[in-house]
Specification:
Elements: E1 2-7, E2 14-19, H1 21-25, H2 35-38, E3 49-52, H3 55-66, H4 77-84, E4 90-93, H5 98-104, H6 108-115, E5 124-126, H7 137-141, E6 147-149, E7 159-167, H8 171-182, E8 187-195
Parallel strand pairs: 3-8, 4-7, 7-8
Antiparallel strand pairs: 1-2, 5-6
Pfam families: Pribosyltran (PF00156)
Protein name: ComF family protein
Domain Phosphoribosyltransferase: 130-195
Length: 196
């Protein structure tokens, strides 16, 4: 067994991790953050999210999404993989508007799933470049539909799971659910990294 020294992606403290066959055979990912940073995140009491929104998560989202630190997609990969690896529903990440994605250089939702090796399909496209985070609660609830089906997308009569980074009012997930249900989905549920 070899020791590999890497640094915590959040605080840069050295991480001592042992590389072994067990890690390879059981689909364990190498740790990317230290125990001290990990302890700052608070698990969600709901089954529809992994974590609660708190100061540690606020810092994480700022660094990951707005400072474009794509390496941080790996921080929660073990937990996401464990939660979604046996999911029977087709997973659909909430899309970004193309202008926002070009500005940010990557789709933060898709990168979370890729880091966790979770397969997904994209059936939706965002119709507005406005972000929900720029609106207050009332504006979010009253927003016009945010999505449409992608050209050529076919929604089958089966179950889908929408995946997003954070749920605050639920407007984004509600709009995406409405589009899929109107297009013929059997059922649409949702799961988020964070419950806001």
């Amino acid at each position: 067994m070899n020791k590999i020294e890497t640094l915590c992606l959040l605080c840069s403290r050295p991480l001592q991790s042992a590389f072994s066959w067990k890690i390879l055979l059981t689909k364990q990912f190498q740790p990317t953050i230290c125990d001290r940073c990990s302890a700052r995140f608070e698990y969600s009491p709901t089954v529809s999210a992994l974590y609660q929104y708190n100061d540690a998560m606020k810092d994480y989202l700022h660094q990951y999404k707005f400072l474009q630190d794509v390496a941080l997609a790996k921080v929660f990969r073990q937990e996401l993989h464990a939660r979604l690896k046996h999911e029977k529903a087709t997973i659909i990440p909430i899309p970004m508007h193309p202008l926002k994605q070009r500005e940010r250089t990557f789709s933060h939702i898709e990168e979370l799933l890729k880091a966790a090796t979770i397969p997904f399909v994209q059936l939706l496209e965002k119709t507005t470049s406005e972000t929900q985070s720029s609106k207050n609660r009332e504006q979010r609830i009253q927003a016009a539909l945010l999505f449409r089906l992608m050209t050529g997308a076919h929604v089958e009569h089966k179950e889908y799971l929408l995946f997003d980074d954070i749920k605050t009012t639920g407007t984004t997930l509600r709009h995406a659910t409405e589009i899929l249900m109107n297009a013929g989905a059997k059922n649409v549920k949702s799961f988020t990294l964070i419950n806001g």
